[in-house]
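Bit of a strange request maybe. I'm writing a small parser for structure token strings and I need a real example to test against, not something I typed by hand. Could someone generate the tokens for this chain?
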Amino acid sequence: MTMLHFILLALLELWVANAQHAPLALHHLHEVANGDEVVISLRGHDLDGDKTHATITKLPRVGELFQLSHVFDKHGYDPKAGSPITSVPTIISGKDSRVVYRRPKFDYRIHQIGSESWKERDAVQFEYTVNDGNEEESQAGTVTFVSDTTRQLVSSDFRFMDEGWKTVGNTKSNVRHEATRRGEMNNYIYAVDDLIDVDAEKNDRQLWKFLLPEKYTGWYGAWYGGTFEFTLSSFSGDYSGVNDHWVGDKHHPLNLVEIYCESCDLFKGATIAFPLSAQTFDGQTTQYSMTMTESAGWVKDPQNTLYEWTAPTRCSFIEVLSGISNVTILGDFTNWYESVSIDNVRWVAAPSKGRYQIPLCAQDTPNCRKCSC
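Reply from user aminoacidic:
Good idea to test on real output. This should exercise your parser:
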């Protein structure tokens, strides 16, 4: 190796040692009561230890954001809220990049017949970026607010209508809304398997499922550690032998829930599922609650019929939650006709204990594509 090579190598090592890392605008979640306000810090995570400054890049759909008042910022006395933040981008002026979020006392829209609030998530979010004084700005981080009583990120109670739910697969039946009460099912939706498509061995060639509407798609990274809850029931069908699904000579265990991310795995797509074998359904009213972590019984599609579905890694699990394209819930539990109803669908966040954030190792990029967990 020549002297020039030694010099170039030394310069490269010096450049790497002194290279600046772009800071991270962290995703985090907070519980806020109706009519209450909370002070949050938007200080970024900087690998170089530099101080960061935040900029609001997207305002919340509901509620208000404020800069800190001078007296609270300097001395810690009320009132906390200073000037309102009404446009973007807005640079945060307070110490530690703190802002105030104020939740409205009551959201009248959700109680109005004809309101389209059913298209929206329960949670409220805004986005921000951080910088450390260098030229490079971070990618956007998301701050999520949920009710302190329900912690719901998104839900469907079917109070007035079917809320855009559909069916896919082996059925010609549309989702129907039932505005009555039947046991624990109160204002619910149902669908009927009206198309029998079985092979010579009387195995279903295709399954029908409930397809969740658009509000259940997109970024749900803050759901990690929470729960997926819903209630199923049936008023017709023979559940003495729950559908044991075969395609050709290969056994395919049924999945109760499947969550698909089109952009995951460098746009190859990825599906995580909760197997029916981990739960049961006999047609009676059954409540389900599945924990949203990689070790809670979820499996990942290997995208190869020669391999079994196995538990996802933490990185792949959070990546799917960070880019959900569609979600389905099984309705086809038998090989013959059945009717299945669903109610009380809720995606619930984990308790925040002041501030909850997904693991730092999954936040190198907002969509978890770069992950070191």
